[in-house]
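Summary for the steering committee. The consortium agreed at its last meeting that each partner would contribute one worked example illustrating the joint modelling workflow. Our contribution is presented below. We chose a case with several input lines so that the handling of multiple components could be demonstrated. No manual editing was applied between input and output; the record is shown as generated.
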Amino acid sequence: MIRFHNCKILTKDMIIAEGNELWVKGNKIEYIGKPKEGVFEREIDCKGNVLMPGFKNAHTHSSMTFLRSYADDLPLDRWLNEMVFPMEARLTDEDAYYMSKLAVAEFVSGGITSAFDMYLYPNAIAEAARSTGFRMTICGAVNNFTSSPKELEANYDKYNSYCENVSFQLGFHAEYTTDIGILREISDIAGKYKAPVSAHCSETGLEREECIKRHGKSPVELFDSLGLIDYGGSLFHCVHLSQRDIDILKERDITVVTNPASNCKLASGIAPLSRLDERGIRIAIGTDGPASNNALSMFREMYLATALQKLQTKNASALVPKKVLEMACVNGAYAMGTNNDCLAEGKDADITVIDMHKPNMQPVNNIIENIVYSGGNENIALTMVNGKILYEKGEFYIGEDIELLYKKCRDITQRIKKAQ
Amino acid sequence: MIRFHNCKILTKDMIIAEGNELWVKGNKIEYIGKPKEGVFEREIDCKGNVLMPGFKNAHTHSSMTFLRSYADDLPLDRWLNEMVFPMEARLTDEDAYYMSKLAVAEFVSGGITSAFDMYLYPNAIAEAARSTGFRMTICGAVNNFTSSPKELEANYDKYNSYCENVSFQLGFHAEYTTDIGILREISDIAGKYKAPVSAHCSETGLEREECIKRHGKSPVELFDSLGLIDYGGSLFHCVHLSQRDIDILKERDITVVTNPASNCKLASGIAPLSRLDERGIRIAIGTDGPASNNALSMFREMYLATALQKLQTKNASALVPKKVLEMACVNGAYAMGTNNDCLAEGKDADITVIDMHKPNMQPVNNIIENIVYSGGNENIALTMVNGKILYEKGEFYIGEDIELLYKKCRDITQRIKKAQ
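What follows is the complete predicted structure of the assembly.
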């Protein structure tokens, strides 16, 4: 059993509580309460630091680390067609495994304890999760060129009984890459399992317009009309939405996953988070992939999420920090269907420790505002996933020497670039 | 003499060069070139990391750390009048000294080696610089309530011969806080010394409109008409500009200092950096104060500067990373008149080491893009100012125990809040 003491704890109600300690037994939170007697393998004096449920990176493409800083400063369509797709064509399943592990290192050093990951190679994601101990929910990535509804269903079975830190959700890439026949088949699978379906949605204005040209419906309207989201799901980006789209999102209990850094960097726009929030729609936050961001930092995303709303609505009080932190720590768990949405007895032990002993966190007028408005990866003292410490004080415990992992990833990237 | 070896070096031309080493003698860069014999007090193996000129924080209010996370989510006018001014009224010169030192700790842990600092207490800023070794250029802060043109002139003399890491530039707070009679007197002083003058300018639409109502001119037009910027200067924020304003900024060789995080957080808007850049206007970057940001991280500002331009211009190639890094590392030196704009022999040794051995910097496809798009304070391995190492691997060498400094600052903040 591991004992965290001398800490402040972010509660389920998004309040920072003092005076309690937290015990972890196996992969679960065993106890939160006043100090009492116990037998421990390890006791961690948190020095007054803050224990939080880890960040949930609710939309990413971990394996794409190989494209970081490779194809910057292009709009989405050219970025995909001219740079991403040709490079991806030379990536193997094994390459993707190492590249995902590199992303896992970045995740845990930034307080992220689980990711909702969509990529060509589900096996690479699953193995990266198993070998590092990181929690991954794999999102189906079916489109006209990759995978199929049949494979999707097989993966749904396979990866939902793979290991305790891996799960799988139905999903496809996007409307603009997936023919309607395939979407109908996926809808049938969703109906069969009564399962949510997730996908990219209305990321750019162009995507939305072309969907309307093709189908007479917006992406959200189309997905709804096909029954794809009858059992909910997560829609990634959702930058360009009509009032009707927003009504459907609410009706279908969709989680909107926002990716503000990526949406800025590809000049896609600002998602209408304040409007969605006012309508009572659940919002989670993702970093998107390292090729379009380029960091995988939930601190950056939290700041951007609120900063861009303040700009968009011309209202400095838009999207207050408490709400943003809830999006980043809590709501992603609903998107992924994981048991790590808060720090409470019986929950999976996915925890991060925020180091308040850094100048950017001082003085302490309001801890949640400090975290959202001032925090950065330098404030992550420790990250635990499923009861295991994967990162502590600059050191990684992910089953691989970090320098060897960097080298492996550099070598893979060089090989792929040379082949071009 | 200190030797940095096994490093990459960002050159004056904004290229990352390999194979050279860098020596520091006293407060100056003594040598950059191929390895050769020498006698050293210390040899630093940089392990392939990047040596850069430190970031220049070209507009900040260091002492305002006491207001971090205290008055969030308000627009500029309410934020100033309801929260900032009443709290500031209870801050002493000594308080401001400690609060500035806290900011210095944040600066050096974020690779910042000099700051252009405007606040009520120039003495506190100067003493914080002297006692920590950090480089400060103090900006005059005259307005109707604080200081006077006479005091400004006295400070100009005093702080320009104070100590080698302190300098002073003429300045005033802003048009909306300073009567035209005072502005005329400052213009006379500028003429007498043929010196640049700096101020807040066109931060909000309201500020601009009210200036036009009062004077029939925009702030930029007004300053120009009064001869205030005949010898150049830096104008902070510049969010709301007309074409005529931009022409004047160019004609007067003004440095525009952008503060994107603060402009988002207070819902002030997006400065037209791409237009300014196309017009050939020098742009530098500042964090603004910790009360309106709330972090003091140039990484955040660099990312926002380019990300917001991509959004504003709907062009993913707007404001490329090389240009952004130049704004952050080089251009601020022109604004402050310091001898630390690049790493070259004879320049003041203001250096930061970027740690590439972190997952967010791997793999390495393009180092400058990695720094601008992925970097964060976790990538600062070392910061040297004026030849002295002030920060290295998480430890501070600023003449004060960091935990005692945190406590002092917390105590001051508590006292001020209780008095309210």
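The mean pLDDT of chain A is 97. Chain A has two domains: 2-53+347-396, 55-332.
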